[in-house]
Write a structure and sequence with these properties.
- The chain is an all-alpha fold.
- It has 20 helices and 2 strands.
- A hairpin with a 3-residue loop joins β1 and β2.
- α1 runs antiparallel to α2, α10 crosses α11 and α19 packs antiparallel against α20.
- The N and C termini lie far apart (about 75 Å).
């Protein structure tokens, strides 16, 4: 565990430190596209955050290769080399898209090429354990189709949810944490050596997300762009594929004592794609809904719109931060609920806890305008949004005239809330108190003075 934590911290530190220079580079390179109609941010924000994440990935793997236990993976398995080659292709494709824009079909072709390169190096599904049947071997062609499909689906699922500040990085981080716990348990608890690469990839992925999130939380200073979102989706897919079909079902049965216990203890392995799909359940649901919605409307499945799940949360009335936290909550509930069900001895407790948390999530989801107010005694030490609004008496005299003048300036195009009175001299203020709030008279008096 200590080696994995070291890799995680190094990856997070390198990613965090690289974001600032990468942001300056993105601004200098002009990777700051104009705000689109479907965007929720109001100011152009630099992209190319995937460059910092790719640097963190390389640093984490470099440190891992020098460690005693994890370093053996670089010799015994080709998964690490396959990951680097696939992530490199996806990274270059994403950088081109962030800077110049790439057609959707070209991106799809690039994703399939990256997946094909990894399959060619051995990252592919070999067999599928089917409930009631046992382990079913698949042909190389079938394994290639399943692997490429899984990569493309996960890449686009993560890319689809990259619409709010911190949303994609946070949800992928939650998914990677759940997958790391599961993979590490298989490796340490059951001695499944084939689960070690998945644990390493998950640890690196957690570090990449944690290092990037401080710069990407609302209001974001930089976006990861397609160079980051597609790479995160690919790493999730590789972690899933590297463990799928490589676990000996009969060996696990001999360790647990019965096939029934094996099925209960290893649900995500017995149905191999269950855990990878549950950790991205919300992005996957968003992807499927988007494809159905656009196809039903006679549009291309790749046509952008403003009807994603996070957009709908904003439309309901949730704030930006609350919408992100709601998505975090449901992602964590589904992912860690699946892992807990595979670990717990009694599934009833997990199901009841899951149902209770679902109820809490629904209550929060249906109360978009709920804003609790702190007691008056502690309002001085809580954030302003939790303080009760004070009722103030309407201003009269010169203050009222200044307020009216400020409102007229706002309508004319001046920034809202501009302190108009602060810009007038003492004589102008006295004149304004005598003649009222006529903006023309004030302007003439100021020009006469000049």
């Amino acid at each position: 565990m200590r080696e994995y934590l070291l890799v995680l911290f190094v990856t997070a530190a390198v990613t965090y430190l690289l974001v600032s220079p990468v942001r300056k580079f993105a601004i200098a390179a002009g990777a700051m596209p104009a705000v689109r109609a479907r965007d929720v941010h109001r100011e152009p924000t630099p992209r190319l955050g995937g460059i910092a994440m790719f640097g963190g990935l390389c640093a984490g793997l470099l440190v891992a290769s020098q460690l005693t236990n994890i370093g053996r993976l670089f010799i015994q398995s080709a998964d690490v080399r396959a990951l680097l080659s696939g992530a490199g292709i996806m990274f270059v494709l994403g950088v081109l898209d962030d800077k110049w824009g790439v057609d959707a079909l070209v991106k799809l072709g690039g994703q399939m090429i990256a997946a094909g390169v990894m399959v060619w190096q051995g990252v592919t599904v070999i067999s599928l354990p089917v409930p009631g049947v046992g382990t079913v071997a698949v042909t190389p062609t079938q394994g290639m189709i399943i692997s490429v499909t899984l990569v493309v689906v996960m890449v686009n699922a993560v890319n689809f949810i990259d619409g709010l500040d911190g949303l994609a990085a946070g949800m992928v981080c939650i998914a990677a944490m759940a997958f790391f716990l599961y993979s590490y348990r298989l490796w340490i608890g059951y001695g499944v050596n084939d689960a070690a690469p998945a644990a390493l990839f998950s640890a690196v992925l957690i570090g990449m997300c944690l290092g990037f999130l401080p710069h990407n939380l609302h209001p974001a200073r930089i976006f990861m762009g397609d160079s980051g979102s597609m790479m995160l989706g690919l790493m999730l897919a590789v972690a899933a594929i590297s463990i799928t079909g490589r676990v000996d079902f009969d060996y696990i049965t001999s360790r647990t004592g019965s096939q029934t216990a094996t099925v209960h203890a290893l649900v995500p392995i017995y149905i191999p794609l269950l855990l990878p799909l549950t950790v991205i359940a919300l992005p996957l649901a968003d992807l499927l809904l988007a494809v159905v919605r656009r196809t039903w409307a006679g549009k291309s499945p790749f046509a952008a719109d403003k009807q994603h799940l996070h957009h709908r949360l904003l439309q309901v009335g949730h704030s930006h931060s609350r919408a992100v936290l709601i998505m975090y909550f449901w992602a964590a509930l589904i992912a860690f609920g699946t892992v807990a069900f595979s670990v717990a001895n009694t599934g009833r407790t997990v199901v009841l806890a899951f149902a209770g948390l679902c109820l809490v999530g629904l209550v929060v989801l249906l109360m978009p305008r709920f804003r609790p107010h702190a007691p008056r005694a502690v309002q001085a030490v809580v954030p302003p949004r939790y303080r009760k609004a004070r009722t103030e008496a309407p201003a009269t005299g010169p203050e009222a005239a200044a307020e009216a003048l400020g409102g007229a300036a706002d309508e004319a195009g001046a920034p809202a809330g501009a302190p108009a009175m602060a810009e007038l001299s003492a004589k102008d203020k006295a004149l304004l108190s005598r003649i009222g709030s006529g903006a023309t008279a004030v302007g003439q008096r100021s020009r006469a003075k000049g």
